[in-house]
Hints:
By secondary structure, the chain is an alpha/beta fold. The protein is built from 20 helices and 7 strands. It has helices at 2-7, 24-32, 52-66, 77-86, 96-99, 131-139, 176-189, 204-215, 222-241, 245-264, 269-304, 309-314, 316-327, 329-332, 342-359, 364-377, 382-406, 413-416, 423-463, 469-507, and strands spanning 38-39, 68-74, 91-92, 107-113, 122-127, 152-158, 196-200. A 5-stranded mixed beta sheet has the order 5-2-4-6-7. The protein has a two-stranded parallel ribbon with strand order 1-3. The longest helix is centred in the C-terminal third of the chain and has 41 residues, at 423-463. The protein is elongated, with a radius of gyration of 35 Å. InterPro entries: TPR-like_helical_dom_sf.
Amino acid sequence: MISQARSATKYTASFFARRNPPTPNETGFEGVLSQITQFRPSIETQILKTCRSIYTEANYVMLKMNLLVKVIAKMPDNYILPILIVKRVPILELPLSKVKNFKAFVMSHEMTIRGPERGIPFNFILRHRSLDHFCRALELSPWQASPRDELVSHTVALIDPYEGESLPNSPAFYSRELEEKLISPYSAALRGFPDFKIKGAISEDLSAAAVEEITRPLTDTPESVLHEVEELKSKGNEFFRNGDGKMASQSWTKALFMALHILGSPAGEKVQNAGGMTFLNRMVALYFDCYSNYAQNYLKSMRENATDHELVRSFGNGFFNAIYGALGTSDKFPNATWEPSDQQIAKVFYREAVGCRLIGEGFLGQAETAIQRANHVTPGDVEIERERERISRWRRSVHYMAEYSSMGFHASPRARSGVKNTESIALHNMMCSTVASELLKIVMVVSLIDMCIEILMSFLLSFVFPKHHHAFFSTSTTATTLTQACYESLLFTLATGSQLYHTQNAMQPMQPPHPGAYK
């Protein structure tokens, strides 16, 4: 059953293209800077012109208060730019021509990839208060979890701006407390960086202890690996249940990158060999679960923002990456013997169908295919049947809208408002069609009764009561008037009900039910 479902799963490119940042060759780094979060400090330099003593003291205070860090990235732009753009790491707003010769920093971080193509060096300035953010972005960056991470070297240097100079009115610039503060973001966030050095104006014992932590492999034994990944997955699940989708995503992302690092890099081969097939299968299962949970987290955000259709569509890229990541697990790790159960496969297909329906326009066919696959794997599931009915109504609504357009009818107010989720439009069309059908039946019955009354009155008038001809003619006319009044009243009721439906539908957009148990 699973193999049949997987063999039928041939994915086409989604409408959500991954938005990679432009390369320097296309726009230059100056163009890329507009996409990076930047801060602009307020600097008053007039006091520096007073005298040399005040200049020296003010410069000392400026360095001590800001603790600026210069980062030199000697690697292809697609390594470092996504970290700054996607993770929104704030950098100093400064022209690149001035960054190269910038001297007012207390620490530098040089990242170099060993290889024939390093790309154009990209230099930027961080405040030390943003360094922990930058380190977390480095720790979760995709390239750090690839086999090439051993080709990347990191060299952090603490710079003494007053080396060889005397400061008669100020204490020594560096203290042990400041040294610990400067390197603490690295030792707290980074693990598994095999080529990392700390040098410069720092105590040797502090440097050695930090480097030992940073270069230490992520794990030592298969048991500790599994425990850490399972703990990250459980934390993500707990965050999700408490409504904190952002922290849930961070936990699952860290678990996924840790799994990729162990299963896809030479550094993890020893752990794999020690753990054997049992370890590999459990890691692959955790990998599948994290991606499946990721998709559910996107669905939650899409439901919560259902009225903002553009925002819902913006979730599409991440949502489909999670869906395809889960369904492509077995292909990514062919050496593993673990396969997801029927229920797990059906749950992912179900979530794909729900996500396509929430996104709306352009994804009807994909939603139908996904829900059919879910039903094929686990036939008779109540939630899957309900979702299949919703998608069927969506299909009927598209058919009705096409017919109405060909007949010259205008779209409903909800459609004209730009909301593309057509399920509510389908319900409106079905309601109008049903009421119109019943209306025709009533009018036909009333018309038949009217005709019978007229025939009967004419018969009585001619043969039984000739003296009361005008009275019965008046009765027949009254019946006809009642028929017309009934017809007009029903038309008014239909129009009023349709308008009321549109008003309520615009104020309270339909919310789909929760897709069921969460793993």
